[in-house]
């Protein structure tokens, strides 16, 4: 299989698995226990906290381990509603992940106000609209995707955070797709909260983290045993946490640039199929992501055909569902449902190889020709 669906989930890195394995078997202590086994687990958790903090330029005391970005995002949005009771406004963008969109719906259902900032056709946020929407004294939180999972568009987070702070609002960055691909520094960006998921950076699923700045008010969503300094209760997922720490360390030292492979894929496809449209090419984009419109081709059929040929990619919709319902991201960029229904996303990881690119391009080109031949009414099939 050629796996080009890293924005949905990445293949676990063998070094990450090797680091976590002993904590699935012999080092099974509860990190809250005071005996030697517990202390061993605790040391591993705190070491991982340091590794994650280093990756994003935070202090280790600002890192909370969670089950993944969905939990981190839910925690931030619920917390802001409670810690800023006299500020009822939440601001998000039109291209958020469903985790944020659904939390925004709940915010509204609970009596809060939500403003959704549009994006340009490039996928970049309309900063003028953000400036207009920010009401000083009323805005509790600005929560924005840093890099989009469908198109790879990178939003100007530093600028967004500065604008939000000038209105006295807290800032949350969904950095799930940034980490492991580009460097992230919470101080440079000036964000108060940041969410990440391990499985987008080569750990197994079910582990993530939340950065909460020292200065930001925070109320836990999950209460109970008081773990994570009472900010996220529940016995720590020690193997997952060790995996996330190792993945963070590898992300720091791995200098594999995915962009040459992504660009080569795009060039090879365009050379054979010049009518293709690559979304957001003029915007800053993640080096691994390519969202491509195949005019006149049913993306669902193409996805199935490619799957049969051993190539894994994703529909124009997001990583959260297997369905190909029209992408709200492409819709926000001004494309219609028909356009979205002819769009596929290819996303690479640092574990893809150069040799896979021409193979993938050939498979995609052949599948497009195959589907067009099937559906093109000008192709006359005669029977002998
Ligand atoms: N935010 C973005 C941008 C994502 O791509 C994802 C992935 O699904 C999430 C949030 C949610 O992450 P998870 O499903 O790992 O909780």
UniProtKB/TrEMBL annotation:
Top-level taxonomic group: Bacteria
InterPro entries linked: Aminotrans_V_dom, Aminotrans_V_PyrdxlP_BS, Cysteine_dSase, PyrdxlP-dep_Trfase, PyrdxlP-dep_Trfase_major, PyrdxlP-dep_Trfase_small
Reaction catalysed by this enzyme: (sulfur carrier)-H + L-cysteine = (sulfur carrier)-SH + L-alanine
N-terminal signal peptide: none
GO molecular function, one term: cysteine desulfurase activity
Keyword entries, A-Z: Iron, Iron-sulfur, Metal-binding, Pyridoxal phosphate, Transferase
Residues annotated as domain Aminotransferase class V: 2-357
Family: Belongs to the class-V pyridoxal-phosphate-dependent aminotransferase family. NifS/IscS subfamily.
Name under which the protein is recorded: cysteine desulfurase
Source organism of this protein record: Prosthecobacter dejongeii
Organismal lineage: Bacteria, Pseudomonadati, Verrucomicrobiota, Verrucomicrobiia, Verrucomicrobiales
């Amino acid at each position: 299989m050629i796996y080009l669906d890293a924005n949905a989930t990445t293949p676990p890195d063998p070094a990450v698995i090797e680091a976590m394995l002993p904590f699935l078997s012999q080092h099974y202590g509860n990190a809250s226990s005071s005996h030697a086994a517990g202390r061993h687990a605790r040391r591993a958790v705190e070491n991982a906290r340091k590794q994650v903090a280093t990756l994003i330029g935070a202090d280790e005391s600002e890192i909370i381990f969670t089950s993944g970005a969905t939990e981190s995002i839910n925690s931030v949005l619920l917390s802001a509603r409670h810690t800023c009771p006299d500020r009822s406004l939440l601001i998000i963008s039109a291209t958020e992940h469903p985790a944020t969109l659904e939390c925004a719906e709940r915010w509204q259902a609970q009596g809060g106000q939500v403003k959704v900032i549009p994006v340009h056709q490039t996928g970049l946020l309309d900063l003028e609209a953000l400036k207009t929407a920010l009401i000083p004294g009323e805005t509790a939180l600005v929560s924005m995707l840093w890099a989009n999972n469908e198109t790879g568009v990178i939003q100007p987070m530093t600028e967004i955070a500065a604008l939000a702070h000038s209105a006295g609002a807290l800032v949350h960055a969904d950095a799930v797709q940034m980490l492991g691909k580009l460097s992230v520094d919470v101080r440079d960006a000036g964000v108060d909260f940041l969410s990440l998921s391990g499985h987008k950076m080569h750990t197994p699923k079910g582990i993530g983290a939340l950065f909460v700045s020292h200065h930001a008010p925070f109320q836990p969503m999950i209460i109970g045993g008081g773990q994570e300094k009472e900010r996220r209760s529940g016995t720590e997922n020690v193997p997952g946490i060790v995996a996330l720490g190792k993945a963070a360390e590898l992300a720091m030292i791995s200098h594999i640039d995915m962009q040459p492979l992504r660009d080569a894929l795009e060039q090879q496809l365009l050379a054979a199929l010049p009518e293709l449209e690559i979304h957001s090419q003029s915007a800053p984009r993640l080096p691994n992501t390519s969202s491509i419109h195949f005019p006149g081709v049913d993306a669902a059929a193409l996805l199935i055909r490619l799957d049969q040929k051993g190539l894994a990619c994703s529909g124009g919709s997001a990583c959260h569902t297997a369905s190909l319902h029209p992408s709200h991201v492409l819709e926000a960029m001004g494309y219609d449902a028909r356009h979205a229904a002819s769009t596929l996303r290819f996303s690479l990881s640092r574990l893809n190889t150069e040799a896979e690119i021409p193979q993938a391009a050939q498979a995609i080109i052949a599948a497009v020709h195959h589907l067009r031949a099937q559906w093109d009414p000008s192709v006359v099939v005669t029977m002998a």
